[in-house]
Design goal:
This protein has 360 residues and is α+β, with helices and mostly antiparallel strands. It folds into 2 domains: 204 residues, no CATH class; 88 residues, Pdz3 Domain. Helix content is 51%, strand content 21%. It is built from 10 helices and 10 strands. It has a 4-stranded antiparallel beta sheet. β1 and β2 form a beta hairpin. α1 packs across α8, α3 runs antiparallel to α8 and α7 packs antiparallel against α8. The chain is globular, with a radius of gyration of 24 Å. The two termini are 20 Å apart.
């Protein structure tokens, strides 16, 4: 359990630091003063001040913060005695709200964007060592539509319903989420393109639909292929995250499909246990691959147009672009506060859900 906790802190910490570093660096480039850069939540374990920024490490490895001068209308105290402070009418330099709106948009967007950059960099390492698995058919299932539609072993799937396919994960995701609608499959055989139509068949035993083949051939990736398939990995997780969120909104997924920190820790424990017999390098690469998923998820979730998230802040800034003037900070602050309370309630629900799943 101690190993799981250490791995959890390392993986989650890298993802969170990447996110906050994005905010931090772009804020600095745009002349915005960063008051605090912290990793974790709750009581402070370590802290130090360098320049104008206080850096802090907190007890609970569940998030982080990059606090800007003047954000939400709150300013750090001016230096000097009490009488001098009373006479200070000017705001400190480098306040967030006084920065150009596009500078603020770039600063807020940088957090999620750095998560995507981290995912790509980690994918370069994982794909460089393990290669990529392309969607090449390796076997056909008797009594299922793939064989009836004319597909053969050795065919490589290139498109499904017009959507370009690069990895076997993309095919398995579409198959696992199928509700039985007819699919248009484009594939290559001997260098020639072919197209066929098929309708996935329902399996009573597994309670899901199957196309009727197994796929996956691992290829070594170097040079351009390394860059290409690393980007494809990130693209896959972006698509899977967005589509999963849409399915959650549509009611196709339930609250049981959500996972928080406890669920992530359980998943890490399972992966470490499965990878350990194959050696430390396999464990490290497995955790890096999981960090790709986490980093993409954090980036996408933070871009949702909801109060208290980066996406919610971006909504107010784009409203400012359209109006030509900002929404009053106090009104925006109220909206974000309500959103923060709602987010905390959701976190409690997810935490409870994670814990109950352990004992089922």
């Amino acid at each position: 359990m101690l190993v799981t906790l250490i791995v959890f802190i390392l993986v989650f910490g890298v993802v969170v630091v990447s996110h906050e570093l994005g905010h931090f660096l772009i804020a600095k480039l745009n002349g915005i003063k960063v008051v605090e850069f912290s990793v974790g939540m709750g009581p402070t374990l370590l802290e130090f001040t360098k320049g104008e920024t206080n850096y802090a490490l907190k007890l609970l490895p569940l998030g982080g913060a990059c606090v800007f001068e003047g954000e939400d209308g709150i300013y750090t105290e001016e230096k000097g005695n009490e009488e001098e402070k009373k006479n200070v009418l000017e705001k400190p330099e480098g306040t967030f709200n006084d920065a150009n709106v596009w500078s603020r948009i770039a600063t807020v967007f940088a957090g999620p964007f750095f998560n995507i950059i981290l995912a790509f960099l980690l994918s370069l390492i994982v794909v460089g060592f393990t290669g990529a698995t392309i969607p090449k058919i390796t076997s056909l299932m008797d009594g299922y539509p793939a064989a009836d539609a004319g597909l053969q072993v050795g065919d490589v799937i290139t498109k499904i319903d017009g959507e370009r396919i690069y990895l076997y994960n993309e095919v398995t995701f579409i198959s696992s989420m199928s509700t039985g609608e007819e699919l248009e499959i484009e594939y290559t055989r001997g260098g020639e393109k072919h197209t066929t139509m098929l309708t996935p068949k329902y399996s009573e035993e597994d309670s899901r639909y199957y196309i009727g083949f197994t796929i996956g051939e691992n290829i070594e990736c170097k040079g351009w292929n390394l860059i290409k398939y690393s980007a494809c990995e990130v693209r896959y997780w972006l698509k899977a995250t967005v589509e999963s969120l849409l399915m959650l909104v549509q009611g196709k997924l339930t609250g049981d499909d959500l996972s928080g920190p406890v669920g992530i820790a359980v998943a890490i424990d399972d992966m470490v246990e499965q990878a350990t017999p194959y050696g430390i390098p396999t464990v490290v690469l497995t955790m890096m691959n999981f960090a790709v998923l986490l980093s993409v998820n954090l980036g996408v979730m933070n871009l949702l147009p909801l109060p208290a998230l980066d996406g919610g802040r971006l909504v107010f800034m784009f409203i400012e672009v359209l109006r030509g003037k900002p929404v009053p900070p106090e009104k925006e602050g109220i909206v974000h506060f309500i959103g923060f309370v709602a987010l905390m309630i959701l976190m409690v629900f997810v935490l409870y859900n994670d814990i109950t799943k352990i004992f089922r």
